[in-house]
Amino acid sequence: xxxxxxxxxxxxxxxxxxxxxxxxxxxxxxxxxxxxxxxxxxxxxxxxxxxxxxxxxxxxxxxxxxxxxxxxxxxxxxxxxxxxxxxxxxxxxxxxxxxxxxxxxxxxxxxxxxxxxxxxxxxxxxxxxxxxxxxxxxxxxxxxxxxxxxxxxxxxxxxxxxxxxxxxxxxxxxxxxxxxxxxxxxxxxxxxxxxxxxxxxxxxxxxxxxxxxxxxxxxxxxxxxxxxxxxxxxxxxxxxxxxxxxxxxxxxxxxxxxxxxxxxxxxxxxxxxxxxxxxxxxxxxxxxxxxxxxxxxxxxxxxxxxxxxxxxxxxxxxx
Length: 319
What we know:
Layout: H1 2-32, H2 34-37, H3 40-65, H4 73-86, H5 96-118, H6 124-142, H7 153-160, E1 162-163, E2 167-168, H8 169-187, H9 189-199, H10 201-206, H11 211-237, H12 248-258, H13 270-289, H14 294-318
Antiparallel strand pairs: 1-2
Helix pairs in contact: 1-13, 3-8, 3-9, 3-11, 3-12, 3-13, 4-5, 4-6, 4-11, 5-6, 5-11, 7-11, 8-9, 9-11, 12-13, 12-14
């Protein structure tokens, strides 16, 4: 009982630490660049940046909690964006067509990942590394190596519109998707089984959980959300770019790990991932404002991931 109480206290301290770290970063950036960073337009831009990465991170969260990893989400973003833009030319197809095709493309890639991991017994890193390369190649071929332009105004408004004239559509999508996934993860049998598989796959099998089916669904869900993210990105930049989404998997993984989800699976909270996505967006935006080179930004993000994993490892050692 005492050990369980200590573990709960450690988890609570870790979650509070993530929140306070986020507040400190906000405070530092406001001090260093109060006029540029705190502008309402800039804060809205941060929320938009966090929304796309947050949707990707939500799918990645399920995968990592189940004990896996998905390196293909950035390439899925590119492919689904190219497909959406290709079917969003004026006077050709109804708006629902590019939406469905983009989401379908992401789901199919996720399904392939799930089959490879769950039924092929191939390590998730290897499967998703392979699909990451293949899907990027397919996106480049489909777009003939060039961005796909000339989309309809309706397609542009998917991401470019506002609710009540002030709240960006992107933020609404992020909030709704996050709340739905949070409910599924914390209040359904499926969510409990995702945690169980990540915590101890052998015990999950013995208890009667269909491990292969859950893994298949988790990777399909991750691909589905990457398809949505690709659709939203294409709408936001008003084109389908086959080179978009590069390193997006890094940002999604960083958001999940910073948010306190264990890389070894079986633990983590959905709201930590939300804070992680916001933190990544704030750091990127703040470094841009401070004119820090994008090359150094990659180094900083990599260091953040290493530190977050190190904290996770030390925390498990104490348990």
